[in-house]
Design brief:
This protein is of the alpha/beta class. It contains 17 helices and 5 strands. It has 4 domains: 78 residues, Conserved hypothetical protein from pyrococcus furiosus pfu- 392566-001, ParB domain, CATH 3.90.1530; 68 residues, Arc Repressor Mutant, subunit A, CATH 1.10.10; 68 residues, no CATH class; 96 residues, no CATH class. Helices cover 65% and strands 7% of the residues. The chain has a 5-stranded mixed β-sheet with strand order 1-5-3-4-2. Helix 1 packs across helix 2 and helix 15 runs antiparallel to helix 16. The longest helix is centred in the C-terminal third of the chain and has 26 residues. The protein is elongated, with a radius of gyration of 32 Å. The chain starts with a strand and ends with a helix.
């Protein structure tokens, strides 16, 4: 191993550098430090084609020196038996750093494994673990996860640990969970609990959870219901509630709110008395200042009135859904009385127009 100064333009970044992302701000800080104190630790390189050198360790320092405008850099020039040997040294140099992401470790260990087999330097995970300075368990996990990621096209923003945490799920279930993690819909820290709930849930509840029709908390609550018939009914109500609630933010964004076609059709098929009683219940609910106990009482009273008018089960279920929508409006989106009056007036006008026609 020889220490010498090399023109910085003759140094190349490693084609197989473990680190895939560099923090620009931290490198600029390092550049300022090098300008003040010089380069304390030389980089390590190996000879490459055309009188150039490739970095084995110290790419951050090299990048900082370039920013600092340094023309020559101190470097240890090393020789290696084959590509596997210098790849292992480069990985070992980065292994203990906290800012090397799990995905970067995963990718590089896989490259080392393939290269080691190619040059017949290793035959087992245990041998690769010894070369790097880690456990056989770590190596086997990283390579297995890498195979799953490639086969199932899992995005790079999904951590290695997360893929491992859902490894016991069926393939299609795992794909759906990891897709939601990649889209930011599930926190990777919660994946263990999410996977456990999926394995314990009935097929119907699991399907609703994976299709994002219910939340994890709702799936847990449904799991506490022992009666299959009662659980099925509860699941229907939970799914209906969630879907109705999703309509509210869209209504609130518009100065002149437009109801969806599905909701309009439900309104048009109901009798006039529903809307009169529903309007009264809405006003009372708002005056109740988010008192959910009072809301339940009003819902009961409204349903009793509907029975008196001989309404069908279909109409009754429509009204129940609307009352759930009201509860969501009040508790989740804080609709004020003035805002409610605008929605109510537009709503009543549409209903009356349809009835007259």
């Amino acid at each position: 191993m020889e220490l010498k100064q090399i023109p910085i333009e003759k140094v190349l970044a490693s084609f197989t550098q473990p680190r895939e992302h560099f923090d620009k701000e931290k490198i600029e800080e390092l550049a300022s430090s090098i300008l003040s104190n010089g380069l304390i630790n030389p980089i390590s390189v190996r000879e490459y084609k055309g009188g150039r050198y490739m970095i084995v360790a110290g790419e951050r320092r090299w990048r900082a020196c370039k920013i600092a405008g340094i023309k020559k850099i101190d470097a240890f020039i090393k020789t290696y038996k084959n590509d596997f040997k210098w790849m292992v040294e480069s990985l070992a140099e980065n292994w203990q750093r906290e800012d090397l992401s799990s995905t970067e470790r995963e990718n590089y260990v896989n490259n080392c494994w393939i290269t080691g087999i190619k040059f017949k330097e290793i035959e087992t995970y245990k041998e690769l673990a010894k070369e790097i300075g880690t456990s056989e368990y770590n190596i086997s996990n990283l390579i297995r996860v890498r195979e799953i990621r490639k086969k199932e096209a899992i995005p790079g923003n999904v951590p290695t640990r997360t893929i491992r945490d859902v490894g016991a799920l069926e393939t299609e279930d795992r794909k759906k969970v990891l897709k939601q993690v990649g889209e930011g819909k599930i926190n990777s820290d919660k994946v263990v609990d999410y996977a456990r709930i999926i394995k314990k849930s009935t097929p119907e509840v699991k399907k609703a959870l994976l299709n994002e029709e219910i939340s994890v908390e709702q799936a847990q609550d449904l799991g506490k219901i022992n009666s299959p018939k009662a659980r099925e009914q509860a699941l229907k109500e939970v799914k209906q509630h969630r879907k109705i609630a999703d309509i509210v933010p869209k209504q609130m964004k518009n100065a002149s709110p437009e109801l969806s076609e599905a909701v309009k059709n439900k309104f048009n098929s109901a009798q006039r008395v529903i809307f009169t009683n529903l309007h009264e219940a809405r006003v009372a609910l708002i005056k109740a200042d988010k008192n959910l106990k009072q809301a339940n009482l009003m819902l009961t009273q409204l349903m009793q009135k509907q029975f008196e008018y001989g309404l069908t089960d279909k109409v009754l279920s429509i009204t129940t859904a609307q009352m759930k929508q009201i509860a969501d409006c009040i508790s989740n989106f804080n609709i004020q009385v003035e805002r409610y009056d605008k929605l109510k007036d537009l709503f009543i006008d549409r209903v009356e127009n349809k009835i007259e026609k």
